[in-house]
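User: Okay, second chain of the day. Same drill as before: sequence in, structure tokens out.
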Amino acid sequence: MKALVWNGSTIELTERNTPHIIDDRDAVVKVKLSSICTSDLHIIGGYVPRAKSGIVLGHEFVGEVVEIGNGVKNIKVGDRVSANCETFCGECFFCRHGFINNCVNGGWELGCTIDGCQAEYVRVPYADTGLTVLPENVSYQNALFVGDILSSGYFGAELCEIREGDTVAIIGAGPVGLCTMACAKIFKPQKIIALDIDDFRLNLALKLGLADYILNPEKCDIEQEVKNLSENRGADCVAECAGGKNTFETAWKIARPNANIAVVAMYEENQILPLPKMYGKNLIFKTGGVDAVHCNKLLELISDGKINTDFLITHTLPLENILDGYKLFKEKRGNCLKIAISYP
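Assistant: Same drill. Structure tokens below.
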């Protein structure tokens, strides 16, 4: 089969053996659509030390189950499924408490420490927890982002502890930020303020009704503008979804005292926590990789028409052109948000 392999410095579309069942709890999935994620770029850039050279990249996909192990109970051959970006056993201490990113038997494995989904077939460990069956009225396209960036968006909104009537500021109007806005709306805040330096993405958030106000930090005094929109207090909660050089600083500066700050972004550099400047703001920071435990709920929301992420797919390319897709995604040409990779 064809697969995109990272060799520790470069990526190459090459031939690999089709995966097979290794453990009774495995499933093999024929990939129908996958996507390129910023985390894939982080691996290629050397920012993920645990990533193993020689792996097939990718962790965001949907497909059809073609083989299952004897221990798989909830998934059957022929099921249309979305995949969780996290591999988790469902039984260890962290899994039982919902912290699946820290599963002692898993974590972020697909496309990082084991072969991922940018291939025609992929083996999924712990298939009963790692795969979610799609409702009949949910297409592969509808569900492509459920197990990764949409789950990340819900995770960010959940960490914010949004209360009805809150003012929520979301830094970054990229795919994760837009998903966070969509999920934040479920919690019924009074207003959502989107921040980004990309006017196309900001205007898209406004046009789609994901944000009530948009601000470009390069064109205004961002702290003052957020105060103007929040009765001079600052945002009740902030989700940092950008991961830029100064976006962490922006997050704590625009937050009101006693606010929650959810750090969803994956950084390439260390961030500074200037405690003397923060003293007295009594801020609560919540960080971490996504605990994607709400895939069933998210699919229900999609099925019920309450969330739709189809607009994120700005480009679709066949697997044979995936290298072009990586270049397009990295350079954000053509107002690229997400690229769907299709399979024969």
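The chain has a mean pLDDT of 97.

User: Thanks, on to the next one.
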